Amino acid sequence: MTSDLQVRPQIDRVVINNKKPIVTIISPQDGANISKGDVVKLDGTATTFDKEFIVNPDAYVWNSDKDGLLGTGAVISTGSLSSGQHKITLQVKDKDGAVNTAKITIYIF
To answer: Residue 87 CB: number of other CB atoms within 10 A?
Structure first.
C-alpha cells in the first residue's frame, strides 16, 4: 500500500514589530511667546516602547518649519530664531530605526 501523504516541516514565522519611541518636548511650552534674540532652550526626551531612555544625542533632531534644521541632541539652545510663528518638531530615531516626532508652536516677537 502506497501513501500519497508527504510530511513537510512546519515553519512558523515570528514577526516582531519595532514600536515607535515615545517623544516629549519638555520646553519651551506649546504656545510660548519669546522675545526675538532671547536664547531658547529646546529640551526633549524620548524612551523606547519598553521605557528605556534613548541617550544617543544624534538620535534627536530639532527643526523649525520657518528656519529649518536647528540642531541635534536632547537639549539645544538657539538665539537666532526669526520673528513669527514657528512649528518646532523634535524627531527621534531609536537604535532599531523606528522614528516618532513631537511638535509645538512658539511665537518669536
So the answer is: 12
